[in-house]
């Protein structure tokens, strides 16, 4: 409740401001279980023709902002060997993280999703670049290895290009494994209802990964058309939506009747 965002606002203060704080102390007693229904937000289920995903966990996430400081110079009069090009260094980082993910293999993914150059002019060698690096893996040890390899590369790049490189941690979550019993129940109900099912990890963050700290948790995935999400083109077939709701309903009824 006291954690503050980048604007300095806390969850508790914002709940008070909008009148949603309520009279019940936080945290409350742990739930019996937590099961979340969600679109996959990825292309795996659709590509394989599978209706239900029994989610076995959530990838660990490491976000960093990388700030590269070089020297601005004229693009036409500065010899290549005498440049301290922040834009070039940023491009090297972008290609490195992709190669890193391919080298580590498995579930490792890596993305540069934001890049800003200064002064951002066609005829000026950039003196500053800011970019973000998103690393994700289902295994904590592998995620730490990816972070370490990136750190080593940044040190070597700074030395070879004569630039300064600083990093800022934006977010860090360890991988989460969901409850084995919940996973098996999702599979069982999907099969009983006549739906194809497979296990897979969640690549994006979800409420269930937070609740997994305090109670048995799991997720039910349904396919996403072309893996598109958080976009007006996001789409899931009506029958797939109904299948996911049926699995969730049967699972929740079963849990409630056992309690």
Give descriptors for this structure.
5-stranded mixed β-sheet; 7 helices; Alpha-Beta Plaits; elongated; alpha+beta; Aminopeptidase
Characterize the structure shown.
The protein is an alpha+beta fold and 259 residues long. It folds into two domains: 31-58 and 176-258, Zn peptidases (Aminopeptidase, 3-Layer(aba) Sandwich), CATH 3.40.630.10; 60-173, Alpha-Beta Plaits, CATH 3.30.70.360. Helices cover 36% and strands 26% of the residues. The chain is built from seven helices and twelve strands. It has helices at residues 11-18, 44-48, 86-104, 140-161, 180-192, 207-211, 238-258, and strands spanning 34-39, 52-58, 60-69, 73-74, 109-111, 115-118, 124-125, 128-137, 164-173, 176-177, 197-202, 217-222. The strands form three sheets. Strands 1, 2, 10, 11 and 12 form a five-stranded mixed sheet that branches. The longest helix has 22 residues, at 140-161. The chain is elongated, with a radius of gyration of 23 Å. It starts with 10 loop residues before the first helix and ends with a helix.
Order of helices and strands: HEHEEEHEEEEHEEHEHEH
Beta percentage is 25-35%
Radius of gyration: 23 Å
The major sheet is characterized as:
5 strands, mixed
CATH topology of the largest domain: Alpha-Beta Plaits
The best one-word shape is elongated
The span between the termini is 30 Å
Topology (elements, then pairings):
Layout (H helix, E strand, L loop, with lengths): L10 H8 L15 E6 L4 H5 L3 E7 L1 E10 L3 E2 L11 H19 L4 E3 L3 E4 L5 E2 L2 E10 L2 H22 L2 E10 L2 E2 L2 H13 L4 E6 L4 H5 L5 E6 L15 H21 L1
Parallel strand pairs: 1-12, 2-11
Antiparallel strand pairs: 2-10, 2-12, 3-8, 3-9, 4-7, 5-8, 6-8
Helix pairs in contact: 3-4, 5-7
């Amino acid at each position: 409740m006291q954690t503050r965002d980048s604007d300095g606002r806390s969850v508790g203060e914002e709940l008070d401001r909008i009148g949603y704080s309520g009279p019940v102390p936080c945290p409350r007693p742990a739930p019996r279980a937590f099961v979340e229904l969600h679109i996959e937000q990825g292309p795996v289920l659709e590509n394989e023709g599978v209706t239900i995903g029994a989610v076995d966990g959530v990838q660990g996430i490491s976000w960093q902002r990388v700030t590269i400081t070089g020297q601005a110079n004229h693009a036409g009069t500065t010899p290549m060997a005498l440049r301290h090009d922040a834009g070039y260094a940023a491009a090297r980082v972008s290609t490195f993280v992709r190669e890193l993910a391919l080298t580590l293999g498995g579930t490792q993914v890596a993305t540069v999703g934001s890049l800003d150059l200064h002064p951002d002019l066609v005829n000026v060698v950039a003196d500053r670049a800011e970019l973000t690096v998103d690393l994700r893996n289902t295994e904590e040890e592998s995620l730490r290895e990816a972070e370490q390899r990136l750190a080593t590369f940044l040190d070597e790049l700074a030395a070879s290009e004569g630039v300064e490189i600083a990093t800022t941690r934006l977010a860090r979550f360890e991988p989460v494994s969901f409850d084995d019993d919940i996973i098996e129940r999702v599979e069982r109900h999907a099969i009983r209802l006549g739906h194809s099912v497979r296990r897979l990890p969640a690549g994006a963050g979800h409420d269930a990964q937070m609740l997994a700290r305090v109670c048995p948790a799991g997720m039910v995935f349904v396919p996403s058309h072309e893996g598109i999400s958080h976009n007006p083109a996001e789409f899931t077939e009506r029958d797939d939506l109904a299948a996911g709701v049926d699995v969730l309903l049967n699972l929740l009824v079963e849990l409630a009747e056992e309690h």
